Amino acid sequence: YGTSLEAAIKARGQEAAQKYGAAATLSVPANDPTFKALMDRPSMMKAAGRASELAQEAGETFDATSVKSLHYMKMAMDDLLKNPERFSIGATEAGAIGKTQKDFVKWLGEQVPAYDEARTAFQQASRPINRMQVGQQLREVLRTPLDTGERAGMFAKAVEEAPRTIKKAT
Description:
Blueprint: H1 2-24, H2 33-39, H3 42-57, H4 67-82, H5 91-111, H6 113-143, H7 148-169
């Protein structure tokens, strides 16, 4: 898996750089009513602030009409949802933020089909990578020099944790 996993990750990165790069040069209308309604939601306000910081860290200026900046907002929302406890977010709020993020990403994809295409391509390229990563994890468990009973228990635990591993990887 090692070499093919590395090659798949590299290929996904190259394709993402090309497709997201092309989409990042585009913009959306500043006065879109759906976007204005989304921006009134607290999570979007938080994401905009965080996205502005991400842009600054990259030496860029945040512009809410730029697809590149809006992608920073999407990534900021990813962070909120990936580690809700870090941001003192409970399960109910995380669910609401998840819905807002879906609405936002759907809107952005409708406004900028190239962005939607880039996201879809990245997701599709991630599927075999995720499977290889789980396979590597299981292989490592099976290679561990333990007696048969311990190895079986570790394998069962690795299989049980595979969905979380995949979720974490995506």
